[in-house]
Amino acid sequence: MILRPEGSDSRRFEATRMRSAAASSYSLLCMLLVVAMGLPQAANSQVPACASNGQDCAVVAPERHAVTKLEHWKAALASPVEQRIGPASPELLDYLTQDNIRNAIPNRPRPAVLAPDFLADVRAALVGLPAQVKRLLSTKLAGIRFAEDIGGTGYAEEIVDAESNPAAGFIVLDSVVLSRQRANAWFTWKENTPFKPQPGFELVGEIEPKSDDNRKYAIQYILLHELAHVISIGEKIHPPWTMEPRDIQSTADYPYFSLSWSVLREDNRYATAFDRTFARRKDVVFYLGAKLSGDQMVDIYDQLDGTNFATLYAATHPADDWAEAFVTYVHTVLMNRPFGIRIYRDGKLVKHYKSCWTEKRCEAKRRILDRFLDSK
């Protein structure tokens, strides 16, 4: 990005953190919108003093915190989507602080200071999303909030109703981190993080033409990834990220998931249909310490071409498989924007990885995305 490394538990960050019920979390990517207005908060919320003072305090179970309850966001969900953005409330800062403590992340979130030009870029990024995407948000997106020093670029969390059923989600973004980004520089940085630098090898990413290579379009792309996670809440796309693999009894209801993934309950992990031919997938780690050398870039992307994953990051977890498919599909198919990764050896182009949505290998996933966006 060149955002700071996405701190801590590798399952929590992609530029965003998605927390699981047991306080473990799964990784995810990115960013979003904001207006300088807060949404109504629960009237009688109690915010421990430790949140505002940045001190560690008694940590309550996440499922008992007010901000994970639908009632807390009732007023926000009744407002237009464009008004569901603003600075993080004291209650939300407290929740983020507690989550960082649980996951041994040293950062202590604080209120955001939002510059007018940054807000303008965020608003423009949101307004520019396709109508199909914005329709999906009306009942799912409770709010987008901004804070500083949250321990990553962004954070996505599930909200449950009175019966503890997944009902919606909220996103928190680090305004300081996001304010520094340009689209292609951010994308290039992200795609390089699985690889250790190697003399003579260079990976360059492109998601915008030179004319649009700016902060607004970086925000828009990152925003789409985060929104994909929120949109997936309560849908039969992949198993909930709040559930451990060992606890998933059946995947029959998840047709998208089943195109690539299976559950190894005894090992408490997910496997893919391509693990034999893509043996180094287990070494693909974004943000938290590269395990692959730069001279393996071409081999890794050649192997990725033999899968139905839209991006390399999609191969790391089922939730990110969906989010990366969603963002690249919306970006390239619906918005007709560029997407490419070029790998050079000694200055010579040796690999050009492109969007897979016109290729046979992603045909089955594209059918699901076509139906999903058309039916909403």
What does this structure look like?
The protein is built from 12 helices and 14 strands. The protein has helices spanning 49-53, 74-77, 90-102, 116-127, 131-137, 175-178, 183-192, 215-232, 255-258, 297-304, 318-334, 363-374; strands at 16-19, 25-28, 85-87, 110-111, 141-148, 154-160, 166-174, 195-196, 201-206, 261-264, 269-272, 292-293, 340-345, 348-354. Strands 1, 2, 3, 4, 5, 6 and 7 form a 7-stranded mixed β-sheet that branches. The protein has a 3-stranded antiparallel β-sheet with strand order 9-13-14. Residues 1-56 have low confidence and may be disordered. The chain folds into 2 domains: 16-178, no CATH class; 183-374, no CATH class. A hairpin with a 4-residue loop joins strand 10 (261-264) and strand 11 (269-272). The protein is 30% helix and 18% strand.
- Summarize the main sheet: 7 strands, mixed
CA-based shape: globular
Structure classification? alpha/beta
Integer-rounded radius of gyration: 20 Å
Fraction of residues in β-strands: 15-25%
Mean pLDDT across the residues is 84
Number of strands: 14
Number of helices: 12
| End-to-end separation | 32 Å
Q: Helicity range of the residues? A: 25-40%
Overall tally of domains:
2
The string of secondary-structure elements, in order, is EEHHEHEHHEEEHHEEHHEEEHHEEH
Keywords:
single chain; 376 residues; alpha/beta; 7-stranded mixed β-sheet; 3-stranded antiparallel β-sheet; 30% helix; globular; disordered N terminus
